[in-house]
Amino acid sequence: MLGTFLKKQILLMVRNRQEIIVLLIMPFVLISILGFALGNLLNRGEIDLNAKLAVVHHGDEEEDLAKIKKETAEWQMPAEQQRAMEEALRAMAPLSLLKKEVFPPLESEGLLKVEYISGDEAEKRKKDFAAILEIPEHFTYDLLHYFLFEEGEKPKLSLTVREGNEISSQMIEDILLQVEKQYAIFRAIGKTGGEGAPLQLTDAPMEGSFETVSKSEPIDAFTYYTAGMGVMFALYIASNMASYALREKRSNVFHRIMLADVKRGAYLFGIFASGAMLAFIQIMILFGLSFFVYKVKWPDLASFFLVSAFLSLAVGSISVLLTSVNYKLNSENASNLFSSIIVSIFAFLGGSYFPVSQISETLQNLGSYTPNGAAFSGYLKILQGYGISEISPSLLALGIFTAIIFCIGIFLFPGRRNEA
């Protein structure tokens, strides 16, 4: 039963190209952007930049998204595939990508301060900013249309930089250049159907490092963000598993499983094992490719596999908890809340965006109890050359978290009488 269940979940995941993009491609997008933007600056010791960037959007991204969604609706795809397409388009919307994924880590680090203002205000305050980024009207629609249909000319952004702020301006230009390269990769993936996509994201040198608390060798920016993004995006597996499970209930697949005399505990264990296995596969693919793309090497493979396994089990337990809450509420609110808000909070506390110890030791201690934070701490210690004894606190935290969350998930799962 477990083998069949796992096979079904893997097939569902593989058939959904949009989720593959989110779970495998997006980590590389953020690693590239953050690694190049922060890596070069950290290597120069330019930490306290606080570059000011004004963003002027002359259009309405929601209107652009509605227009492109209307066009894709004419493709007459199945409802679930159409929903996935709309989610992917929203994730790729340039202004939303910049506001939600690219700029926040840089603002938290104190490297960038972004203001969203009107064109008139930008003209009056142009001396207040290192650069002004102007997004033309209908830019989101033109970009997504160009990506999907390969028609028309490639839309362009306008970046005006102020003299006397060379370092700040260069950082902003580097960020936008990396974003542009990632869209080019998305377009290449779309043209090849997701196969044969280039692995070498850029030819620029991979420089920069984060100074760690210990006296060990510093970890370069790409290694830091590979581990940080890896543990963060593994959490999204849990919300996907819970959403799939609720769809099974609504399509009566769950009821047919119960009629086959499968116990509820066995079903939840299948959710747990499938979530853990898919998370482990995702981690292996991400870190495996990072070896070729970013030259990230693990000094102790045994410890690496151990931390990855414990993190995967934690993801499996979260899958069970979210599934139980979804079933109890008969909605995807729990998994949506987890993927949209809680993962970001965990990522911040766990240090995926930047070393949170620079802000507060209390936040650092709090982050060590999150599954991604504990795994991230373990990964960093392995990369710094520590042995199994030094990563044991991380393994213990992950083990306790897994046991507690799994038990809560089992307890919350509705019985036959309470099932909606």
From TrEMBL:
The record ties this protein, via InterPro entries, to: ABC-2_transporter, ABC2_TM
Q: Where are the transmembrane segments?
A: 20-42, 222-246, 267-292, 304-325, 337-356, 395-413
Which keywords belong to this entry?
A: Membrane, Transmembrane, Transmembrane helix
- Keyword Protein transport in the entry? The reply is no
A GO molecular function assigned to this protein is: ABC-type transporter activity
* Species per Swiss-Prot/TrEMBL record: Caldibacillus debilis
Tell me what topology the record assigns in the membrane: Multi-pass membrane protein
> What broad class describes the main subcellular location of this protein?
membrane
Q: Where is the ABC-2 type transporter transmembrane domain?
A: 20-411
Protein's name according to its UniProt entry:
ABC-2 type transporter transmembrane domain-containing protein
User: Which compartments is it annotated to reside in?
Assistant: Membrane
Q: Does the keyword Ion transport apply?
A: no
Q: Which residues form a coiled coil?
A: none
